Amino acid sequence: MRLELQLSRSVGLGPRGIPQRSSFVRWVEAALRGAKRRRDCEIAIRIVDSREGRHLNMTYRKRDYATNVLSFPADLPEGVSLPLIGDLVICAPVVAREAKEQRKVLRDHYAHMTIHGTLHLLGHDHENDADAERMEALERDILAGFSVADPYAS
């Protein structure tokens, strides 16, 4: 499997606290392996500020606030075969605030949001209890490979 990852960030959003591209690549690759994805794939990750995050959440989900991660699975026309699986949008200020509030290491929370979002791109969801349990178990297993504590432990 070959991964093509593009990473960008909002204009004016500095690098402070944002992990290196290589970290995002490792996290996405781990999520792909954990979900047993064996085909080549492309993914774009955009790190945004609160204003852009709120705008995107309102535009696409009709929710007027910035959220930690948004997943946009690729919606390719029938007959088009590309390795694109979709885009992730991660809101840096929300991730930083949540990490502080939940007493998590910021880097670990980025890992979780990246893996969580990637699994959404691959069709996993948490719309009901059974699906949530499966997805969270997969996230725990993948994160354990990075020595990240269970993000769902209270």
Strands, helices and their partners?
Elements (H helix, E strand, L loop, with lengths): L2 E7 L11 H14 L6 E8 L1 H12 L7 E5 L10 E8 H10 L4 H16 L7 H16 L10
Parallel strand pairs: 1-2, 2-4
Antiparallel strand pairs: 3-4
Helix pairs in contact: 1-4, 3-4, 4-5
Would you give an account of this structure?
There is one protein chain. Strand 1, helix 1 and strand 2 (41-48) form a beta-alpha-beta unit. It contains 5 helices and 4 strands, in the order βαβαββααα. It is α/β, with parallel strands linked by helices and 154 residues long. The protein has one domain (3-144): Metalloproteases ("zincins"), catalytic domain (Collagenase (Catalytic Domain), 3-Layer(aba) Sandwich). The N and C termini lie far apart (36 Å). The protein has a 4-stranded mixed β-sheet with strand order 1-2-4-3.
Short description:
The chain has 154 residues and is α/β, with parallel strands linked by helices. It is built from 5 helices and 4 strands, in the order E-H-E-H-E-E-H-H-H.
Topology as a string of helices (H) and strands (E): EHEHEEHHH
Find the CATH superfamily. Answer: Metalloproteases ("zincins"), catalytic domain
Largest sheet: 4 strands, mixed
Number of domains: 1
Q: Write down the CATH topology.
A: Collagenase (Catalytic Domain)
Total helices: the number is 5
Coarse shape: globular
The CATH top-level class label: Alpha Beta
Low-confidence stretches: none
**How many strand segments?**
4
Overall pLDDT level: 95
Distance N to C terminus = 36 Å
Helix content: 40-55%
> What percentage of the residues does DSSP assign to strands (E)?
15-25%
CATH architectural grouping: 3-Layer(aba) Sandwich
Walk across the major sheet and give the strand order: 1-2-4-3
Task: Give the C-alpha Rg.
Answer: 15 Å
Classify the secondary structure makeup into a structural class. alpha/beta
